[in-house]
Amino acid sequence: MTGEIESDSGSILFDGNNISGVPVHLRSAHGLARSFQISNIFHDMTTWDNVALAVQAHAGHSFHFWKNASQEQELRRPAIEFLAMVGLENRAKFVAGQLSHGEHRQLEIAMALATNPKMLLLDEPMAGMGPKESQAIVKILQNLKRKLTILLIEHDMDVVFTLADRITVLVNGRGIATDIPDAIKKNQKVIAAYLGEESYHA
Question: Which pTM value belongs to this model?
Fold first, then answer.
């Protein structure tokens, strides 16, 4: 969907537009933003600078080229607002490499939000996290889902059932069921695929 990998067939319609052949950066301009399974941040820059850079990239210009970007309020002000949305405003001046794994996830979400997306694509945001970090991300996403559409790929089913309004279950890359969470829990194809045939009789 984001254009990182070219599709073999079909078309991708987003917000009424066919974006199948659109370059990655222009898909972002259409309103798609994503996080990666492995965090994709600038470890030697501050948390604030990471988000300010995302704000600048989305704006599409260099602001005042000869001015120190760290003093540019058009970048700094919205950056701190996005950090606040993911609970990192108190970590704004920390070097990103000093943050915990869970905070890296939060930072990456803030950077995605800085592009003002219509849809946020999240690739296994809970990967490698402990229960406490996962709960923090779930709370953030519960707040965000009231403001924008989120497409989440996740193997932690407790997280999926907590967050999702609608679920598609994939087996070997193909969808076997799409429905609301309560219906997915009772779907016999899903039970057989993920829990084994004996679960039919449990």
Answer: 0.82
